[in-house]
Structure to design on (189 residues):
């Protein structure tokens, strides 16, 4: 029975598990998105989210605690400089797990784990959804088309003329005009 066994040991010793989670957390902070198995992503989420919360308070103590978890200077500086500014207003839930399917070799559940505020594709869709505020049925579209027919908008009729290709150069024209009288004289004889 698994009563009160909250930690997924991931089939590793505690030192190996801590080192793996530290490396994965540093990679997530530096690259903003990593691909891993679903079990590792869930373990990483509970490891990295308290660190991101700690980054809201930029003090020497917070930096030292974060470094003791990450063991990577670049990741700590990225966490406190860039990421903390973006997540300052967010109360929690800094990571997102997106399932991608099964791995070919051993059929393990694979996923992306990413920082929520750094996915431009999903942030762009949210802004587009807010831009569309009214809902129009088919009848509204027909009325708009009829209104457009009754008062046609002026059209800009600018015609672009393509330059004609010169079929013969001036030298070729000269030779033809010189040849034609001779050819005409030969034809008369």
């Amino acid at each position: 029975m698994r009563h009160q066994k909250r930690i997924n040991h991931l089939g590793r010793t505690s030192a190996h598990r801590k080192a793996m989670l530290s490396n994965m957390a540093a990679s997530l902070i530096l690259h903003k998105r990593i691909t891993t198995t679903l079990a590792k992503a869930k373990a990483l989420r509970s490891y990295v989210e308290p660190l991101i919360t700690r980054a809201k308070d930029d003090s020497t103590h917070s930096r030292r605690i974060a470094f003791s978890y990450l063991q990577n200077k670049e990741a700590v500086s990225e966490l406190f400089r860039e990421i903390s500014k973006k997540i300052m207003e967010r109360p929690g839930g800094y990571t997102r797990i997106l399932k991608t399917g099964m791995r070919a070799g051993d059929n393990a559940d694979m996923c992306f784990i990413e920082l929520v505020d750094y996915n431009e594709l999903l942030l762009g869709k949210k802004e587009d959804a807010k831009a569309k505020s009214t809902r129009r049925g088919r009848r509204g579209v027909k009325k708009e088309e009829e209104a457009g027919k009754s008062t046609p908008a002026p059209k800009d009729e600018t015609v672009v003329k393509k330059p004609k290709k010169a079929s013969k150069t001036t030298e070729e024209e000269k030779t033809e005009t010189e040849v034609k009288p001779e050819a005409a004289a030969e034809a008369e004889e």
